[in-house]
Specification:
Oligomer: single chain
CATH superfamily of the largest domain: Zn-dependent exopeptidases
Order of helices and strands: HHEEHEEEEEEEHEEEHEHEEHEHEHHH
CATH class of the largest domain: Alpha Beta
Number of strands: 17
Radius of gyration: 21 Å
Structural class: alpha+beta
Number of helices: 11
Strand order of the largest sheet: 13-10-14-17-15-16
Shape: globular
Helix content: 25-40%
Distance between the termini: 42 Å
CATH architecture of the largest domain: 3-Layer(aba) Sandwich
Length: 339
């Protein structure tokens, strides 16, 4: 039994501890498990449906699921997985029980399934992408993160990349709406409102990161809306707000699919350190009606990365990566259109 599973069971009432794992009525194997109110599914069973074969890297600790065109490495007690070479943060840690690893059912159905098989997701988004809203983070008195040594402000670079991305997407035939086109402050609820009023099919929020006291930290991370009933990546424990359904949750599977394509393209194009595909209830992601993603493209607090961000060539590469991510997402949902 994994340490996480043991700890979770330890805090259950005695009567609950005595209840055996939930079983699939159609199978004699324990394909399903429920721990502390969280439903889990046998990783071998779920991923086998998508052509993955399981093997142990370290029995009881690390499992590798391999398909012809994909690979997933799961580690017991960890939310962090490697999925097709990308760092991905699940909502719940994998748990070891019996002779296999389990992943939460929400992660299986709202993270991995839409990426592996978009056509199997029952509620498709807009059949054709037409309107894309680009949100340049911060603005006006809100500078965003800064590198004071080099006199660099996040708001300046966010708008520059947004304008570059707009040019590329317009060339692809999309109608593009900007939440801001100059150096002005736009409140977070208003940004989502702009997207909703425009009838956005996608929402892309562009940012740059910083962390105080850790100048060596660098890399790119991508955020999508946290699914209902799960904690965000930055949360160590569940909170009451995790159970609240927000407008952004209507597109949970498509958020994951969009985030996956955006994150993979940013890393491939920029060659930046992989800080992960993550979940957060940021206001713009929480309130927007369309699939949405928030990109933290790099760290201004890292001098080497800040110097790159300050170059037009780097920002153009980022815009091209985001445009390619949109193209990848659009191609992925083609199989859904006929449903």
């Amino acid at each position: 039994m994994s340490a996480v599973l043991a700890a979770l069971i330890l805090f259950l009432p005695a009567s609950a501890q005595a209840v055996p794992p939930t079983r699939n009525p159609a199978s004699s194997s324990s394909a399903y498990l429920k721990v502390a109110g969280v439903n889990y599914v046998d990783a071998r069973v779920f991923f086998a449906r998508h052509g993955f074969a399981a093997s142990w890297v370290e029995r009881g600790k690390q499992m590798r699921l391999q398909a012809k065109n994909g690979r997933l490495d799961l580690v017991a007690d960890k939310r962090d997985v490697t999925f097709n070479g990308l760092r991905v943060l699940m909502g719940e840690p994998a748990v070891f029980h019996g002779n296999t690893l389990y992943v939460s059912r929400i992660d299986a159905e709202k993270l991995f399934q839409p990426i592996l098989s978009p056509s199997s997701v029952t509620k498709p988004p807009a059949p054709v992408l037409r309107v894309i809203v680009i949100d340049a983070g911060h603005g006006g008195q809100d500078t965003g993160t800064q590198n004071k040594s080099f006199k660099l402000d996040e708001k300046v670079f966010a708008l520059d990349v947004s304008n570059r991305l707009r040019t590329l997407l317009v060339k692809q035939g999309y109608k593009v709406v900007m939440t801001r086109t100059d150096d002005r402050f736009i409140a977070l609820p208003q940004r989502a409102e702009i997207a909703n009023k425009a009838g956005a099919d996608l929402f892309i929020s562009i940012h740059f990161n910083a962390v105080s006291g850790a100048p060596a930290v660098k890399g790119s991370e991508t955020y999508v809306m946290t699914p209902q009933y799960q904690r965000s990546t930055g949360s160590a424990k569940r909170e009451a707000g995790d159970n609240v359904a927000n407008p952004g949750n209507l597109n949970d599977p498509w958020n994951a699919l969009l985030g996956y394509h955006m994150h993979s393209q940013v890393l491939a194009k920029l060659g930046s350190a992989d800080r992960g595909l993550k979940r957060a209830r940021f206001a713009v992601l929480r309130m927007v009606n369309s699939p949405g993603v928030l990109i933290e493209a790099g760290y201004l607090s890292n001098n080497d990365e800040a110097k790159k961000i300050a170059t037009a060539a780097y920002r153009q590469s980022l815009a091209e990566a985001l445009a390619q991510g949109v193209r990848g997402y659009a191609n992925a949902i083609k199989s859904v259109k006929a449903k």
